[in-house]
Amino acid sequence: MLAALTDFMIALEIVLEFDFDSLGQIVRLTGEAGQATGKIATGLDKVKSLFKSSEAGADSEVKLALGELSDQVANAKVTNAELKLLVLALQAELAQLQSFRSDLDRYELWETPTGALVYRLGQNAEGKEPSHFLCPTCVEGKRKSILQGHSGFRECPVCKSGFRFEQDKFGTVPVSRRSRTDGIL
What we know:
This protein is mainly α. The protein has helices at about 1-15, 20-50, 60-105, 135-140, and strands spanning about 105-110, 115-120, 135, 150, 155, 160-165. The longest helix is centred in the middle third of the chain and has 47 residues, at about 60-105.
């Protein structure tokens, strides 16, 4: 039951991170493609009826209708190409999000002895690579930034957030070094 809930939460998070503006562009372009297809069908009907007509001057009407049809076909091709590019971009974005999520699944949110929250490499992944911690601020921004420093204090090389891992000898957290992002440890 817990695994199903976790899978649902991951899927929901991926959906919430999805770029719905791009989806709106696809819907708009799809609508335009549908309109272009309708215009092409109308143009074909005009050409058919002009070929059936034997009136004088039908040649110029046929040429005009063929020119309009040619423009509509070109517009439909451009719209189709734009749709393909957007779909490819969305597929790449989704693959990147899924890859990041898969990599992040190897980590667990962990509270340091001083109360700071960081991501640490999960126990099932230890041994395959050195034990390390990720910056939670960067993880929220879809970046994987390994905290640098020593056992007492570590800092994110990207956003410069600092995290204390050890208390001083009195059991308090010294305030000698502050985060450069918010001024608070």
